[in-house]
Specification:
InterPro entries: Ald_DH/histidinol_DH, Ald_DH_C, Ald_DH_CS_CYS, Ald_DH_CS_GLU, Ald_DH_N, Aldehyde_DH_dom, Aldehyde_DH_Superfamily. It is an enzyme of class 1 (oxidoreductase). Belongs to the aldehyde dehydrogenase family. Pfam families: Aldedh. It comes from Arthrobacter sedimenti. The chain is an alpha/beta fold and 499 residues long. It is built from 14 helices and 20 strands. The strands form 5 sheets. The protein has a 7-stranded mixed sheet, sandwiched between helices. A 6-stranded mixed sheet has the order 9-8-7-10-11-19, with helices on both faces. Helix 3 runs antiparallel to helix 6, helix 5 packs parallel to helix 6 and helix 10 crosses helix 11. It is globular and about 80 Å long. The chain binds nicotinamide-adenine-dinucleotide (NAD) and 4-oxobutanoic acid (SSN). 4-oxobutanoic acid binds next to loops.
Length: 499
């Protein structure tokens, strides 16, 4: 495996890369037009220019994709686990070899700075490597019943055809985090990629084909009509699982739809992460962590720190040091070498960010830095810090999804915990303290699926990613990730000594 050097970004390279992206639907191993012949445009959020038009799946295409997945399920489940793992391992090598292509494509369609996109390639590819290793470890067990009169054989089997729905913010990693464990477990799939960033999934699906994935195992249906195209699939009895990553609002609706067939579901939903800085924290480390937890992906991450809850004795110094670092962050198209903060995904998202900031300012908060959209083309927003944000302000209860850090203060550990848990979300929390006992106590008291202790980014293919409360159900990655695509079957065996 060779990792490519970092070639310069030129208009020709962009054009060549875009020309290599399949623009059709992938159904039963073939790229084809939508039955309606319709296409939709994918835009560069930094310039508003159309990058590519791709096939726009409708209900008929969705049905064809599920037909293919259902038809391939039985034979795919019989493919030896080692072979499934080897396909994933080849895909890992191929994505790594084409890292620069994947990174540039993500920067073009999603906006993140190229350096961050490279980071996502590493992160996203790691799910392929991790699950290539997990494919051969879906162990069951054999035991003697407590009364000794029978034997218990417990096996793991693939759940069957899955519908995977992914968001726009991590175009590669959110796809590989679902596809890799499904492949490892022996499930077939229909992937509905995000309509704002479908291109990375298109290229990745082509890589999976090249890596040897049989026809029908992965079917890809980008669409501009998500509900109409995937709704019938969720109600089709051949579908056995829905794995969704996206907003809590949409997840809640899909869960209701999935209840009709009592579908197995995984839900990776929204977050409202608290970032706690205690009075004994190493403030420089806390600021480094805050920069990562806030500005990774321009704040467009479910794991983004949404509320900075800082002890009153260090809040002023923390805000000052944080602002000094934030000031160094240049907003520019992600392909520009100086870019540290790319554009937000679209005008609607930027308006929502500004609405939350304006509401906080009107409620008495102070802008330590920023506080407005960036003039000119693209959906850029100034890196922003707000201090003196009052409890109950909207910005503390809604996902910001932008480079904005509201600071609220506390005076006791109990108050910090109360503020942190005061949300319907429960994805991740960050805690900065030098007191290890306090760190452990926070792990016990904070209602989140994940905790970063003196760390601002904890995403890792080897770790179980997921939330509690309205942040979702199930886990992706880690030892747990493959379990989401397996069901347990128990076979009771009569006493082998009975005559
Ligand atoms: N917990 C996690 O792991 C995680 C990871 C990334 C993003 N997110 C969350 O995702 C959200 C941002 O992503 P988004 O704006 O793409 O979310 P979204 O809920 O709007 O869309 C997510 C996906 O669902 C599709 N969709 C929308 N309506 C649908 C419907 N009726 N039927 C079927 N599919 C439908 C979209 O086209 C997209 O592919 C944030 O809330 C963020 O926190 C969570
Ligand atoms: O947006 C949420 C996913 C972020 C991650 O996997 O680190």
């Amino acid at each position: 495996m060779t990792v490519t050097a970092q070639p310069a970004v030129t208009a020709e390279r962009e054009t060549r890369l875009l020309a290599s992206v399949p623009t059709g639907l992938l159904i039963n191993g073939e790229w084809r037009d939508a039955a309606s012949g319709k296409t939709f445009d994918v835009e560069d959020p930094a310039t508003g220019k159309v990058l590519l038009s791709i096939a726009d799946a409708g209900p008929e295409d969705g049905a064809a994709a599920l037909d293919a997945a259902a038809a391939a399920q039985e034979s795919w489940a019989k493919v030896p686990p080692r072979e499934r793992g080897e396909i994933l391992r080849r895909a890992f090598d191929m994505v790594t070899e084409r890292a620069e292509d994947f990174a540039l494509l993500m920067t073009l369609e999603m906006g993140k700075p190229l350096a961050e996109a490279r980071g996502e390639v590493t992160y996203g590819a790691e799910f392929l490597r991790w699950f290539s290793e997990e494919a051969v470890r879906a162990f069951g067990r054999y035991s003697v019943s407590p009364d000794g009169k029978s034997r218990l054989l417990v096996t793991k089997k693939p759940v069957g055809p899955c519908l995977l729905i992914t968001p726009w913010n991590f175009p590669l990693a959110m796809a590989t985090r679902k596809i890799a464990p499904a492949v490892a477990a022996g499930c077939t799939m229909v992937l509905k990629s995000a309509n704002l960033t479908p291109l990375t999934s298109q290229l990745f699906a082509a890589v999976m084909q090249e890596a040897g994935l049989p026809a029908g195992v992965l079917n890809v249906i980008p669409t501009s009509t998500a509900g109409a195209t995937t709704g019938p699939l969720i109600k089709d009895s051949r579908l056995r699982k829905l794995s969704f990553t996206g907003s809590t609002e949409v997840g809640r609706r899909l869960l209701a739809d999935a209840s009709e067939n009592v579908l197995r579901t995984s839900m990776e939903l929204g977050g409202n992460a608290p970032f706690l800085v205690f009075e004994d924290a190493d403030l420089d480390a806390a600021v480094t962590g805050a920069m990562a937890a806030k500005l990774r992906n321009m704040g467009e991450a479910c794991t983004a720190a949404n509320r900075f809850i800082v002890h009153e004795s260090v809040a002023g110094e923390f805000a000052e040091k944080f602002a000094a670092k934030m000031k160094e962050m240049t907003t520019a198209r992600g392909t520009e070498p100086e870019s540290k903060v790319g554009p937000l995904i679209d005008g609607k998202s930027r308006d929502k960010v500004h609405e939350l900031v304006s509401d906080a300012l009107a409620s008495g908060a102070k802008a330590v830095l920023g506080g407005a959209p960036v003039e000119g083309p693209g959906y850029f927003y100034q890196p922003t810090i707000l201090s003196g944000v009052a409890e109950g302000t909207r910005i503390l209860s809604e996902e910001i999804f932008g480079p904005v850090a509201p600071i609220i203060t506390f005076s006791s550990e109990d108050e910090a915990v109360r503020l942190a848990n005061n949300t319907e979300y429960g994805l991740v929390a960050y805690v900065f303290t030098k007191d290890i006992n306090r760190g452990i106590r926070m792990g016990e008291k904070l209602e989140t699926g994940m905790l970063g202790l003196n760390a601002g980014v904890i995403s890792n293919a080897a770790a179980p990613f997921g939330g509690v409360k309205q942040s979702g159900l199930g886990r992706e990655g880690g030892l747990e990730g493959i379990e989401e695509y397996l069901y347990t079957q128990y076979i009771g065996i009569a006493d082998p000594y009975a005559s």
